[in-house]
Amino acid sequence: MSNTIRFDVDSDGIAALTIDVPGQSMNVIGAEFLSDLETAIDRLSSDDSIKGAVIASGKDSGFMAGMDLKAMETMLLPPKGLALDMATLFERVFELNRILRKLETCGKPVACAIEGICVGGGFELALACHHRVVGDNPKTQLGLPEILVGLFPGGGGSQRFSRITGAQTALMYMLQGKLFKPAEGAALKLIDTVVPTGTALDAAKSWVKDNPTASTQPWDVKGFKVPGGGSAMNPGFAMTFMGATPMMQKQAQRNMNAPIALLSAVYEGLQLPMDRAIKIESKYFAKVLSKPQARNMVRTLFVNKQAAERGARRPADIPPSPTAKLAMLGAGMMGAGIATVSAQAGMEVLLLDRDMASAEKGKAHVEAQLQKRVSRGKMAPDKMAEILARVTPVTEVEDLKGCDFVIEAVFEDPGIKADITKRVEAVLGPDIIFGSNTSTLPITGLAKAWSKPENFIGIHFFSPVEKMPLVEIILGEKTGPQAIAKALDFVRQIRKTPIVVNDSRGFYTSRCFATYVSEGTQMVAEGIKPALIENVGKQLGMPVGPLAVSDEVSIELGHKVMTATRAALGDAYTATAADEVIEKMVVDLGRFGRKNGKGYYDYPAEGPKHLWPGLAEHFPRAAVQPSPAQVRERLLYRQLIECARCFEEGVLMEPEDGDLGAIFGWGFAPWTGGPFSHIDTVGLSKVVETLDKLTQSHGDRFSPTQQLRDMAASGSTFYGTAKQAAA
Amino acid sequence: MEAFIYDAVRSPRGRGKADGALHEITPIDLASQILRSVPERTGIDTADIDDVILGCVTPVAEQGADIARVAVLNSDYAETVPGVQINRFCASGLEAVNMAAAKVASGEANFAVGGGVESMSRIPMASDGGAWATDPAVAYKTYFAPQGIGADLIATKFGFSRADCDAYAVESQKRAKKAWDEGRFARSILPIRDVMGEVVLDHDEHMRPEADMQSLGALKPSFKAMGEEMPGFDAVALMKYPEVEKIDHVHHAGNSSGIVDGSAAVLIGNKAMGEKYGLKPRARIRAMGSIGSEPMIMLTGPESVATKLLERSGMSTSDIDLWELNEAFASVVLRYMQAMGLDHSQINVNGGAIAMGHPLGATGAMVLGTALDELERSGKGTALINLCVGAGMGTGTIIERI
């Protein structure tokens, strides 16, 4: 009895295997599907009246995505998170390979009819067919993106892709998780035929009918040669791998398990016959899966990201409240960026600024952003005109009538913000939801300017808005469920990833991110070589070094924030050695950062930036330099402890928000799956021990929270017991 | 038992290109001409040779299949003489000498020949493949980057500029020219002959004595593209050496060792053999050895092996009269001088591989011979011969003139 695959044989004796996994919007590979697939293959090979088969999807959403990643954890791990022994893990992992190998050696021709998305395990299934037909649809995406969530193609994909295209091309795609369109797939020879959309099934059937004996894969034919070489004896093959390993490291640093495992699986697998190659692939795959990294990355980068985007944090009982007409207050960089993504999502946008020139400038930014997409061929010119027509620059709050959502992105000054907030309320009334895109000012304070504070919410975008994937939703003390639903619906409309946090200075992301920069600055004060700080920051998996970040956001801005914070906190402010560095750079040396071409780096007119040699003079080098591991530990743990503080203080309500916000908000080392996943993985006791050690040598900023100590003592974790207790 | 050097002979070095004089000479012929000269020069019966050890770094194709034994047969040695090919990368020739000395010292051999051969024009460097650079798991584990990246990293890390390296190279060329002009290599050079017996090369062909700062300044860095662009080895280097901001790519064809063809042999024997043939030992081996060092930067082994040999032999740097370090790259020698506290006047006094070339498998035996000739010419007593080695090694020998 097959639940996931329908098996119909037509009058020509061609079986149609229609995949329709129940309870899923998109076909995914789970245990039941695998078992059904094997049953179907057995019938196919044993029933003489069946001449061949076509595999297609029964869903309009596309052909098939990959493994059911949500179910993978339970499928691969026994209860209580105990690790499986490697032999058992291999057995489970090899199941997909075994069955796909059975498919391609079943003795009957099998064609695959792909309509719509076909990625990951779905594409691996396609590669195990003897013929691949794709319906030509511009939205169809093909390929093997596993690397992006800490895995690699482990269902024969690494072997078949590289046997078809050669190792070099295959690695280029698989190491970046690069997807491609049908025509590109055909050019790569991964796709045999591209037909008009909707006709793939018929085309696949006629291929099977016309090719009754085409049941052997090229790699099973004696004398098969891998394009570009398939043996270490081949200089081209050797050169490919000599280049691939450094390129992979340059891209992924040395933190991730999957990319190097993929390289080895392809290198070793290509030199073996297919039956042994898929075993090598599964062995490497099992090794990757046996480490917590894969689970952490899958959980945050895939499962929880999708959950957040689908409204995990949205109050369920509030009906959908999509925004139709947005009042965008402030047409600066942020305002114009928000206007761009909103108009692209189909909303009408009224872009308000104090004078028409400023408002028009904001619209010009929208136009420039869209134009970029058009020139790259990613958007049709008429589409651009349509989107642009939805953005109307205005100067009077009266013009905002009819808007159903407000986002404010005016100058970061409580007075100015309060003034515009009140004037907007006078026109739209207090029942409209008002969102403030402040990055620093507490929401509870700003909400006082709106007479119904339950309708006031923080909606913090990152710059540049068009590119940055995260939106941080901040709840003021009185923010209500309507406001949360409205803001989250808006984020969903613009297809970004939301996190929801409570009010606090710097909220979650800005506050924790700042610690990375300040720890780097502190190290400058201590005379640690700036190159060491910067390189280790990048090697930790951060997008750039802390000093480079500081230059980008401007040291001068850091100085302003520091001065303001000092004024706001008075005696409660703790001065640091990093403050002195900032003071000296900005006040004494006039080095503001990239904006004036002088910061921790110099920015020559020609050639790349380089560290300013003057740093050695103004911040004399310590005679004894720390090891890279010590620098790395400080840069990492300074962020971890601040995240933990946010959790203890209730700024964060869920570890999921903390992990998503860290990775997508400030680029926190993605290989960890986020700070909370990392703390869990290292172990609470070990983390507390390290923090105690760092506190001793570097000060109280590393001091572990009571909650961390309690969790360590009770043996709980953020994703385990603490989360259950909170629920 | 003590091991003595009775003879050292080498071929001139031919440019390692299609127009090089030795390109038409097969590596087996090149090695055979050198081996044949040993009994001719010393009058020994080859039946007294208990082993022939030849370094060869790319032992594939016509350099493959134990070229040492085949060269022994091809050289009309007694068939009782075995042969073994060894590979310690750039120090193979010296390692072969050390092994020969060890066999004599241990009593395994009365006479043993250590030497090497490399026809780089015929068998390109690295054509033997290997797991180190190509097997992803291994390349990853060892932070593999080609040695030019390591050489440039040494220059950056230890503060040697392009001008420093170029100046070193200019001086190497001058010294080599002077040494040739004064016939300082005459005792060791065996002209190489073609199939008809005509001499095809009697001098080191790679030298460019006219090189100056200006002409070297015009050369493009050799490792910049592979370091900074494709595939980007610099990134790997900085992962191992994060205190370096950016690698300064100072090396180029003019301040790195030349690619050449060549062969060399050194005859080592015990005291009794010298007496049997009335041969006067030219030098004794005081110390020998190899070490492993950090493989990514790769070429900082010489200081470690030198220190080890000095300690083993109870000597100090001041006990060494003459220093010889293979000029793989200018920065390697500059760093060695810095680490050991040497003045340029004490080291590589007759130039080196930047001027004359580096036939990988043979160079170690060649530089040992060069040092021996120089000790005899100058009347000095001790020399420390040393080479940096791929994958992070160092091999050295201390000899004492008799």
Which features would summarize this protein structure in a list?
heterodimer; A: 727 residues; alpha/beta; eight-stranded mixed beta sheet; 30 helices; 20 strands; B: alpha+beta; two-stranded antiparallel sheet; 15 helices; 37% helix
What report would you give on this structure?
The complex is a heterodimer of chains A (727) and B (402). By secondary structure, chain A is α/β, with parallel strands linked by helices. Chain A is 50% helix and 12% strand. Chain A contains 30 helices and 20 strands. In chain A, the strands form 4 sheets. An 8-stranded mixed beta sheet of chain A has the order 13-12-11-14-15-16-17-18, sandwiched between helices. Chain A has a 6-stranded mixed beta sheet with strand order 1-2-3-5-7-10, sandwiched between helices. In chain A, strands 4-6-8-9 form a 4-stranded mixed beta sheet. In chain A, β14, α16 and β15 (433-436) form a beta-alpha-beta unit. In chain A, α10 (258-269) runs antiparallel to α11 (274-289) and α22 (555-569) packs across α23 (577-588). Chain A is globular and about 85 Å long. The two termini of chain A are 39 Å apart. By secondary structure, chain B is of the alpha+beta class. Chain B has helices at 27-42, 67-74, 92-106, 131-134, 136-141, 147-158, 162-181, 213-217, 224-228, 233-240, 271-277, 301-312, 330-340, 353-356, 363-378, and strands at 4-10, 14-15, 49-55, 83-86, 111-119, 192-193, 199-201, 260-269, 283-292, 322-325, 382-389, 393-401. In chain B, the strands form 2 sheets. In chain B, strands 1, 2, 3, 4, 5, 8, 9, 10, 11 and 12 form a 10-stranded mixed beta sheet that branches. Chain B is globular and about 60 Å long. The mean pLDDT of chain B is 98. Chain A binds chain B through residues 232-233, 235, 238, 241-250, 253-254, 260, 263-264, 267, 529-532, 534-536, 539, 610-611, 625, 628, 631, and chain B through 127, 129, 133-137, 139-140, 144-145, 230-233, 235-236, 238-239, 242-246.
